[in-house]
From TrEMBL:
<dbReference type="InterPro" id="IPR002502">
    <property type="entry name" value="Amidase_domain"/>
</dbReference>
<dbReference type="InterPro" id="IPR051206">
    <property type="entry name" value="NAMLAA_amidase_2"/>
</dbReference>
<protein>
    <recommendedName>
        <fullName>N-acetylmuramoyl-L-alanine amidase</fullName>
        <ecNumber>3.5.1.28</ecNumber>
    </recommendedName>
</protein>
<dbReference type="GO" id="GO:0008745">
    <property type="term" value="F:N-acetylmuramoyl-L-alanine amidase activity"/>
</dbReference>
<dbReference type="GO" id="GO:0009254">
    <property type="term" value="P:peptidoglycan turnover"/>
</dbReference>
<keyword id="KW-0961">Cell wall biogenesis/degradation</keyword>
<dbReference type="InterPro" id="IPR036505">
    <property type="entry name" value="Amidase/PGRP_sf"/>
</dbReference>
<keyword id="KW-0378">Hydrolase</keyword>
<feature type="domain" description="N-acetylmuramoyl-L-alanine amidase">
    <location>
        <begin position="72"/>
        <end position="201"/>
    </location>
</feature>
<dbReference type="GO" id="GO:0009253">
    <property type="term" value="P:peptidoglycan catabolic process"/>
</dbReference>
<dbReference type="InterPro" id="IPR006311">
    <property type="entry name" value="TAT_signal"/>
</dbReference>
<dbReference type="Pfam" id="PF01510">
    <property type="entry name" value="Amidase_2"/>
</dbReference>
<dbReference type="GO" id="GO:0071555">
    <property type="term" value="P:cell wall organization"/>
</dbReference>
Length: 221
C-alpha cells in the first residue's frame, strides 16, 4: 500500500509521534513546541526519510523483487522531486531477463515496475526513489517507470491482461500524485527528450491504454 492509500496508517503514525513530542514538550514545559512540531507535518518535509519497511510495495497488486541499488538513487519523492509523469517501456526480452538485468549492478538501469503478459505486476524500486529508466535525469526524477514484458516488434506480446493490469497500476499512480491522464503525462520511453530508445513502439495502442486508465480511475473513485 502506498502512503496516500493508507490515511488511517498515516494517522496512527502521527498519533505515536504526537505522544513522543507531547512527552518532550511536558519535560521542557512548553506545549507550544508540540503544536509547532505537529503543524509542520514532518513526513512531508524534504530530506526527512519516510518510514520504509523491507518488501513494502506502493501498489497493492504488486509483488516485491528488489533491483540492484546501483540502478536507482535513494530519494524522498514526492517531497524532494514532484512526480508528474508515467513512462511506458517494453523490456525487449522476457520477464526473467528483465529482472536479471535490473538486479545486475553493472546494468545501470531499472524501472519501478514490470508488468507481465499474464497481468502480474512486480515492483523492483520504491516510488520514493529515482529509478534509472528514462535515460534522462529530469525525467527519471519526475516519473514512475513501468516496463512491459515483450518485444516492440511483437504486438502479440501486448496482451489484454497486460494492458488492463498496467492501466490499473497507472491509474493508481496518477491518482496518488494528481497526474493528469493524458498523453502529455503518460508517455513512451521513445518520447523522453534525448533518448535513442524506441519503446513501446508503434504497435502500443495508446488510445486503448488511456481509455483503460481512465476507466480504472473512474471505477476506483
Ligand atoms: Zn525503455
Amino acid at each position: 500500500m502506498g502512503r496516500r492509500d493508507a490515511p488511517k496508517d498515516g494517522d496512527r503514525r502521527v498519533g505515536r509521534r504526537a505522544l513522543l513530542i507531547g512527552g518532550t514538550a511536558a519535560a521542557v514545559g512548553s506545549a507550544v513546541l508540540a503544536r509547532d512540531e505537529l503543524a509542520r507535518a514532518w513526513w512531508r518535509v524534504p530530506g526527512v526519510d519516510k518510514p520504509r519497511r523491507p518488501g513494502e510495495v506502493d501498489y497493492a497488486g504488486a509483488r516485491w523483487v528488489a533491483a540492484s541499488e546501483a540502478n536507482w538513487r535513494r530519494a524522498d519523492r514526492p517531497a524532494d522531486y514532484g512526480i508528474d509523469r508515467v513512462v511506458v517501456h517494453v523490456t525487449q526480452g522476457s520477464f526473467a531477463s528483465a529482472v536479471q538485468v535490473f538486479q545486475d549492478p553493472e546494468h545501470g538501469a531499472a524501472a519501478h515496475y514490470i508488468v507481465r503478459k499474464d497481468g502480474r505486476v512486480t515492483q523492483m524500486i520504491r516510488e520514493l526513489d529515482v529509478a534509472f529508466h528514462a535515460g534522462n535525469r529530469d525525467y527519471n526524477e519526475r516519473s514512475v517507470g513501468i516496463e512491459h514484458e515483450g518485444f516492440v516488434e511483437r504486438p502479440q506480446d501486448f496482451t489484454d491482461e497486460m494492458y488492463e493490469a498496467s492501466a490499473r497500476l497507472t491509474a493508481r499512480i496518477c491518482a496518488r500524485y494528481g497526474i493528469a491522464v493524458d498523453r502529455e503525462h503518460i508517455v513512451g520511453h521513445a518520447e523522453v527528450p534525448g533518448t535513442d530508445h524506441t519503446d513501446p513502439g508503434g504497435d502500443w495502442d495508446w488510445d486503448r491504454y488511456l481509455r483503460l486508465v481512465r476507466r480504472a480511475r473512474t471505477a476506483r473513485a
